[in-house]
User: Fold these one by one.
Assistant:
Number 1:
Amino acid sequence: MEKIINVTLKVWRQAGPKASGKFETYKLDNVSTDSSFLEMMDVLNEKLIGERKEPIAFDHDCREGICGMCSMFINGHPHGPDGEITTCQLHMRAFKDGETITIEPWRSAAFPVIKDLMVSRGAFDEIIQAGGFVSVNTGGVPDGNAIAIGKDIADEAMDAATCIGCGACAAACKNGSAMLFVAAKVSQLALLPQGKVEAAHRAKVMVAKMDELGFGNCTNTGACEAECPKNVSISHIARLNREFLSAKFRD
Amino acid sequence: MAKNEESTVVEASKIDARIPAGPLAEKWSNYKAHQKLVNPSNKRRLDVIVVGTGLAGASAAASMAEMGFNVKSFCIQDSPRRAHSIAAQGGINAAKNYQNDGDSVYRLFYDTIKGGDYRAREANVYRLAEVSSGIIDQCVAQGVPFAREYGGLLDNRSFGGAQVSRTFYAKGQTGQQLLLGAYSALSRQVGKGAVKLYSRYEMLDVVVIDGRARGIIARNLVSGKIERFFAHAVVVGSGGYGNAFFLSTNAMTSNASAAIQMYKKGAYFANPAYAQIHPTCVPVHGESQSKLTLMSESLRNDGRIWTPKRKEDAEAIRAGKLKAADLKEEDRDYYLERRYPAFGNLVPRDVASRAAKERCDAGFGVGNTGLAVYLDFSAAIERLGEDLVRARYGNLFQMYEKIVDENPYKTPMMIYPAIHYTMGGIWVDYELQTSVKGLFCIGEANFSDHGANRLGASALMQGLADGYFVLPYTIQNYLADQIQVPRMSTELPEFEQAEKDVNDKIKKLLSIQGKKSVDSLHRELGLIMWDFVGMGRNKAGLEIALEKIKEVRKEFWSNVYIPGKQDDMNNELEKALRVADFIEIGDLMARDALQREESCGGHFREEYQTPEGEALRNDEEFSFASCWKFNGDGVDPILLKEALDYEFIHRQQRNYKA
């Protein structure tokens, strides 16, 4: 049932990439527990605008947990304390009346802050551009049913492909590693016959790009899997390692 | 020019859609056989701008770059992977007939035309059905993990408005997987240097030189800088205008600004009144609501929609004294199964939405607001088991539970219609070219294929058809004549003027410094749209809407408050620029709905219905696409009509009862 709560928000404010940031504290009363977290942020921003202050910049778009645009480190967790959801799916019923909520941007060397809670995740795009695809052009492909793919294989590929590229894995990792993100794509495509052909090469170039862009190494702490809003499994990292090693053997 | 009985100015000039001659099934093949092409060495000398990176934009940009054109791709989000196509859940149609259930290109064509209530162009829709198969093959080749049967072949499900199973899907995340496929193809071209990607950019104007589109003005959303870009042709795939309603299932940045700028530069805006209200959305919870969440139409495969049979039960449920599960089978009214025995819960979206509204308006609605109906899976769980239901819809059920805090495996879901998709859009001819030469429009942003109502799983089909298989051909017919045109300087006076216009508009907005926030004004507009230009429309209401929109426009331009500066990241300024255009689209929608004195598909005029409450078309007078031509700020637009000639199929009143 809907309840009304009052909260205190400690929000990271940073004017730009080079500016130094700091926490600002805001009190917000009469928040409906049926509101989403971002609707609560909207209310706060409306309040700030009403006071002729600059609203808080944060990334968000679909607000239904699929585009991967929203970020925010909330009370020490990417996408907040509730499991298996993105920030936009987090609801205020996850918080208690009178609670202080700390909101920070993703903290990762490869994700520089743009403004306030907004970071650049262009590094993820660059990793995909390096090799996160099957090299086919439009047209001239075989019939969709020409190659049978076992249901279990297709389902496992789908689980890996569920990654929304939000960056929570890298933000949660103490090393700032993007291994789960890279592994999800490598694994999805390595599982399917269509992507198998380039699997080893793909693993090699994507890992090389990841290293080049300043992401850290994977030390198997499992924080990425625990914080992934889409439950992408670290078993995919094992598959990435296999493909990566097979590429190295061939070199 | 003539005036009809209303105030609408109607221009009699004929609109030519340039549909190829010949039998329906041969038009596209004939077109391709005779169109002009550009040879490889000339492709390198030609630049194409593609605005938008959804299914249509990303697939078009990737395909054209593969062919050898230089492509500049613009994306409003931080990455092309986040375009709102990603949120499509249920599936994509294709006439593969893998299920051996009688499907064919003709049947997909026919269902789409009928679903659109006979207000789409036959030739375009036939072509769409024709290329649909190739889309599935393309996506499979890219590594899209479509659902498969145990034997390893592709699985299908059924969707509204069809009696065959032709919908391909990837769990409840089909749009995501298809978009990631197109995104990977696009990324591959970015990696090769064939596409230059501009993310966090928003197009604010199109530059027209000597009657041809030659570039755009865009704002870098991070720095706030206004920049100029040249191309030999401009393609816009910027999505629909549903956010004019403030609350919709669209993403927060989904906007109509690119479309409105094209319209103001001479592209006709067609059928703005045709907007789709989706029947299965999570109901509104309160005043801080920022958007609405769709629950996939695929749920209607196994879910049964009902309201209480007796008003007093509905009242008790609303007051919290009675629960859905307490109601016995005989006390439930499965109103879709009752009214439409042949299609039952799988009637098209417009029909299902109106039926829900009718029940709620009559006092049978549930939820604390009374604006909700049940979508019940108990029969499916009994029949299939909870595990199978979880396998089919697990992510949707989880999504619902996170929003509403109720377990849909135990308690029926509550749903209510919400604005979801806009069939109207920028007018394009058979080649997807607008009424401005060199300016093309694809995907939801154009008006072409869905008529007055879109069937489920057809948006993904159309976006990818346009981007992979139609535009990359038709644009060459235009570009073949541009090979002698050298790259132009962005210092030309037309670029200068367009940038100045954009700057002046921004300066004006920032100088108002009024008392109302952008969002509060957008909400005001949205309420007017929902109340008067929503599911049920009538003459008096639409006239009120036009007056009220005028007031909102005045209030916006005199009392909006935008904090911050122009040359900096400024979300409020971005939103204000979009709301200014939503006001214009709202006006066009109301105008178009007022002139169309009939009911068809998603456009329901209460004055025009059958005794059973179904949409009553008027083919004698309204068998045309309404094309609105901009006539200057503050001046009424002019209405032009593209006649819809049905050469190949016989129009009937849509019937989903038998």
Number 2:
Amino acid sequence: MRPIIKILEEDMKEKVVLEAMEILEEIGFFVENNEAVDILQNAGINVDTETQKAFIPRDLVKKSLKTAPQSISLYNREGDLVSELGGDNICFDPGSAALNVLDKETNEIRAAITKDFVDFTKVVDQLEHIHAQSTAITCSDVPEKISDRYRLLIALIYSKKPIVTGTFVKESFEVMKDMLVTVRGSEEELRRKPLAIFDACPSPPLKWSDLTCQSIIDCAKYGIPSEFVSMPMTGATAPVTILGSIVQHAAETLAGLVITQIVSPGAPVIWGGSPAAFDMRKGTMYLASVDTILMDLGYVEIGKYLNLPTHAYLGMSDAKILDSQAGFETGMGSLLAGIKGVNMISGAGMMNFESTQSIQKVVIDNEIAGMTYKFVKGITQRDEPIAKNLLKEFDKKTHLLSHDHTLKWFREELYLPSTVVDRSTNEEWINKGRKSTGQRTKERVEKLLSKYPGAALEKDDIENLIDIMKYEKIDFHKLLNL
Amino acid sequence: MVILIIEKEYKEAILNGNISLAESLASKAINDNLEINLVIDQFSEAIREAGDLFEEGEFFLPELMRSAEAMKAAMTILEPKIMENKEDRYLGKVVIGTIEGDIHDIGKTLVAAIMSAEGFEVFDLGADVPVDKFIDKAEEVGAQLICISALLTTTMVGQKRLIDNLKERKIRNKYKILIGGAPVSRKWVEEIGADGSAENAVSAVKLAKKLLE
């Protein structure tokens, strides 16, 4: 059976959703975007034009919940199904939009450039347990105005995997959508086989900014999945109680959901988030804390209660180097997210309050993802009787190591890690140079980079994408070494 | 062309750990009166490939062990022919076992299987073997190599006792001694005056070959 974890009692889930609906009805939420205001008003919703607050009746929320799809299928560049985001299925993708990288040569955090994201994408493309890419790194060597779409360009050229992305400026949506259409073939095909998910983060408390409103409206029009990433911070921009923050998360997320379902009933949306436990000593937003994990699993349970696909920023660390904190925070978050059945688990590679990506860590986190997949499969009975017949044979044998039964099942029954995980004896470890996780991972990264088969996208498609990207006098061929 | 296909079969038998195929290929070689050395070379090449695959991380212990067993099965059938030709294909004679007080068997059995597969004549005494039995067997068969396994820190001293015993009998230099087991370190090898230890079965066999060169 699949291992399970439960966070909230059934009647508590009902209570959370009910209170979130009351909040939207009585307190309302802030809408910064004019198109969104029009859309809401045309749907008969009361919007106070002075305060830009919209008040949503609960019946409309309930109606919107009925039209939002229960699952979303995600396809790779080739059109093959990668993951069905629904039920308790899981899929991992790297944490997105890091401004910095942890340099694998110097072990220092520095601003990211094009090569960092190109290499990162090439490595993630080959990781067997991380099934989606994200536009994980924001490159500082292109103008800020195009840095969102530039990440998508790189991800599309260097990887076949579906992509979790998002806009930083409203104008980018059109460009990014055109790139996706180019790769997929047509708008209709893109709608039928989603290749990318767009993240949209409401601002706590209860605010949908101009940019994020636009993103979810545009996505809804084209059938591109929107991933709502509500981010309450306990005791700072949200109630300090974890349950209070979960209610706020639900209200913010339901507001987004209603907008999309008015624009296009049936528009694909994901009940996601990145809440944070506010650190009461440092004033930092602690994203990998045990409280954050609890809050994430709690709101995901609400999403599941509402029959929606779910997402969480889990399986990452706030450490600054590849130390044991980096490992234990990531391990705890990933495994728990896996058991909960969070459909899209974002965070691999990420460190330092979602600001720093590490090409080494993403390789380590791939192992954690692999172990998580293994764990959630649970324990299966393979034989009848379970063990008796094999144990009988021990009369004749001293071991089962080369037994047919062992050969048949060992790869399925036991997780076989890559060289990143050390399982040597102390002596062997010493003989092989006393290598740390970081050193072993650096070697694997270098091996993967040298093994990368080359951009699989057709040359014509690359040219088309670069044509769509056209911006001032930037030479994308030169930047990307094409 | 025919040879090519057969070569592929030898490889398949060993790398897939297909014991019955390995046996039937060996029997066929004898019935068809094939040049026995060439046949053994084919099998040997396959078992070396299994070792390489293991070291590269592609193969795991069950597969390595099974390949070694398939090799051993073929060699058992070919053995009378080798004797008949009076050709000594063996790389050397090895006495191997787990020291007394210790019933851990797997590591030792794996080393024995790979050694045998690679062309050593292996006398596997099993587990919980008294010191005297190791020495008596080695003297009896005229072994060049003694391999002593110990998985427990408490039984590891048996490895030292065996070497001390050889010294007392003034026959230490007749043998190369390899020791193995999780607690064995380089320091321990030096301390008790063994000739070496290795980190896995494949490198143990490589080391054995080197020592007997």
